[in-house]
Amino acid sequence: MDHKASVRERVWSELRKVAVPDSRFHFDFGEFIADFEGGDAAVARLVDHRYYQQASFVFITPDNCLDRLRLKALQDGKTILMTTYSIKRGFFLLDPSKIDPELYLYASTLDGMERVAQHVALSDIAKMPTVEYMVTGTGAINHAGVRFGKGHGFFDAEWGMLYQLGRISTATPSAAVVHDCQVLDETLTPEVFDTVADVIFTPTRTIEVDAPHKPTCGIIWDRMDAHMYDTIPPLQELKAMGL
Fold first, then answer.
1. Distance in angstroms (rounded) separating the CA atoms of residues 197 and 185
2. Residue ranges of the domains in the chain?
3. What does the alpha-carbon distance between residue 130 and residue 163 come to, in Å, rounded to a whole number?
4. Bridge partners (DSSP) listed for residue 133
């Protein structure tokens, strides 16, 4: 954990030079995943990639660097599953066929999404089609696709819940959208529950990852942080479902 913290601090010092500050968290990268200079180009690379082109139902994290991707996905007729406020307010579904196109821009933002999207329980998600693409921002990542996020493990928990519901599998591609300064050359060792990206999109590069690690453990309850469990209702619902 000390190594992960040192990696984050080193990357965050560089990220501050190109990051867009958050209206609530300023440059506190431990609280949010920042948008950055060149974010348009990174998302354009993702949109041109086969994983996005082939998917109609996508999971997109509520990261600042992905607002424009959520807007583009709605405009392209893709259904979006996402969470908000560190999963604490649960999962939401953005169905472009049920949203006025004039509200797509508003719906792609976090504040707008909570007013326009449909809140869904895990029991609802279990009846939905399989999620075809998982997209996230992150704090740092290496060329092997190993991510170090804010340090809370939210994306890994989202992956674990969707995996246990049978909505994703080891064949489900995962992407990370980051600035070039967040991509590391060094070796990073993933935990058994860490989700490694299949592809990394930066403003200047598309990095394909060879044989990325995909966890099959779901949620490991005996390693779950008690505070995380107590403050995230979807985790409580999953456990109550006996999964």
1. 15
2. 2-240
3. 10
4. 58
pLDDT score, position 151: 58
Long-range CB pairs of 158-161 (<8 Å, 24+ gap) are 158/59, 158/61, 158/83, 158/87, 158/134, 159/134, 159/195, 159/215, 160/193, 160/215, 160/217, 160/218, 160/219, 160/220, 161/122, 161/218, 161/219, 161/234, 161/235, 161/238
d(CA 226, CA 243): 18
Q: How far is residue 189 from each of residues 1, 50, 107, measured CA to CA in Å?
A: 11, 28, 37
Q: Is the separation of the CB atoms in 64 and 34 below 8 Å?
A: yes
pLDDT digits (tens, 9 = 90+) for 158-205: 999 999 999 999 999 999 999 999 999 888 777 777 888 999 999 999
Q: For 2-240, which CATH class? A: alpha beta
In our burial notation (b when 16+ CB lie closer than 10 A, e otherwise), range 85-100 reads ebbebbbbbbbbeebe
Which residue type is seen at 192? V
Backbone angles phi, psi at 58, to 5 degrees: -125, 145
d(CA 112, CA 104): 9
Residue matched to tokens 């991707």: 69
Distance CA 122, CA 113 (A): 18
CB atoms within 10 A of CB 186: 11
Q: Please report, in angstroms and rounded to a whole number, the separation of the first and last CA atoms in the chain.
A: 28
For the stretch 115-163, pLDDT in tens is 999 999 999 999 999 999 999 999 899 999 988 766 567 888 999 999 9
- Alpha carbon distance 75, 165 (integer Å): 28
Q: Could you tell me the two tokens for 50?
A: 């086969």
